[in-house]
Amino acid sequence: MHTQITKLGELADVRTGHTFRGALEHDPAGDVRILQIKDLRQCAEIDHGSLIAISWEARTAPHLLEQGDIVVIARGESNTAALYKGELPIVATSQFFIVSPRQPGVLPEYLCWIINLPQSQRRLERSGSSIQAISKPALMDLLIPLPSLEAQHKLIALQRLWGEEDQLIARLQTNRQQMLQGIYQQLIKE
């Protein structure tokens, strides 16, 4: 069975995040958390605890992220994607595109993984002189290979294992650095 190739816009709805006027200030009593570009620059995960909260005062209800939505950084050299898994009311700023899968034959985790692949990142057309940006049509036109749901599940499971391996390697490197530092300190004392 061969893999079908489909445009992202045929598999998901794509919208722009909310545009805020003025600076956002943290309000400990706030009812909505705000996802900003700085919150995703370092990793492809949404750390709910680090997001600022605000009190929503706009006349319209906030367009909250829903379980399975994918946020994609719209500006910069890397258009990292992160999957929203959580219960907190979160609004993404206009620095993001929000991809909401709408086809039953595609897993949100798989779509997020595909968008983050280096070859997908290279295919996204960027424009702008100082700050590179992708357009909504460029994101919607991104070609997505669509294997069976079973294959998607296997790819996601494999990706999780690779992620765990990366974390273990990072911890081993940190431990090695600490041991070397300890040995160095011990040798200096002698």
From TrEMBL:
Residues 5-154 form the Type I restriction modification DNA specificity domain. GO terms for molecular function: endonuclease activity. It comes from the Bacteria. Keywords: DNA-binding, Endonuclease, Hydrolase, Nuclease, Restriction system. Belongs to the type-I restriction system S methylase family. PANTHER family: TYPE I RESTRICTION ENZYME MJAVIII SPECIFICITY SUBUNIT (PTHR30408:SF12), TYPE-1 RESTRICTION ENZYME ECOKI SPECIFICITY PROTEIN (PTHR30408). This is Restriction endonuclease subunit S. It comes from Azotobacter bryophylli.
